[in-house]
Amino acid sequence: MLRPAHPSLTELELGFRKAARAGSARWPAEAARAAVAAGPARQRAVFASAGRACGRARIAAWPSWTCDDAARLLLLDVFVGVVPPCDAATLLRRLYDRGDAHERRAVLRALPYLPTAAASVALTRSLAEDALRTNDHRLVAAALGPCGYALEPAAWRQGVLKCVVLGLPLTAVTGLDDRADRELASMLDDFAREREAAGRSVPPEIAPLAALARES
């Protein structure tokens, strides 16, 4: 379930129409209908072309979302609604595996909006874990957004630490107040001591985050 801090599908669609490249406001709906009729190969091609078709401008009301993110979410909302759940899950996996960083991020961001029959906890966890194995800021942030609720606690803690290491703002982590715990505090303390022993600066986010985690 998405939390109120995140936009609804309707809010994203409205924001997309205002920010999308001229002439492309209706592109997701039109492209999705044509792609559904043509089959999976066309669906993958259309998904990949969203950035070229709609641009990558930020959506004013939700600036962490770009037009290509929103367009891909709108495409997926149609795709998974007209095929059997197993086929939808296969499509989501292929779009992620074969996509570039923009496309992978869009799949990760879309998962919490899609029916769980297609975007199951197991699939969401698998894709989020894969994203956390990269050092791509876009993918790490997306993996710790709403779909991060599918991560097991140990993987989630490692993801939070990775955010600190990469210098990502912790506002990217959904549910931080709820999930921070003493084990995370211990990991952060160890990391800070290692940095200090090596004569390196300690990221300023560590102290308040570790304090929050110890209070949990």
Task: Give a verbal description of the structure.
- It is built from 13 helices and two strands; from the N terminus they run H-H-H-H-E-E-H-H-H-H-H-H-H-H-H.
- With 216 residues, the chain is mainly alpha-helical.
- It has a domain at 1-119.
- The chain has a two-stranded antiparallel ribbon with strand order 1-2.
- It is elongated and about 60 Å long.
Layout of strands and helices, then pairs:
Layout (H helix, E strand, L loop, with lengths): L8 H11 L7 H12 L1 H9 L1 H5 L3 E2 L2 E5 H13 L5 H14 L2 H10 L10 H12 L4 H7 L9 H14 L9 H4 L2 H16 L8 H10 L1
Helix pairs in contact: 1-5, 2-3, 2-5, 3-5, 5-7, 6-7, 7-9, 8-9, 9-10, 10-12, 12-13
**Average residue pLDDT:** 93
By DSSP, the count of extended strands is 2
The strands making up the biggest β-sheet line up spatially as 1-2
Overall geometric form: elongated
What's the Cα radius of gyration? 18 Å
Number of helices: 13
In percent, how much strand structure appears in the residues? under 5%
Q: Percent helix among the residues?
A: 55-70%
Detail the poorly predicted runs: none
| Biggest sheet details | 2 strands, antiparallel
Order of helices and strands: HHHHEEHHHHHHHHH
Distance between the termini: 23 Å
Structural class: mainly alpha
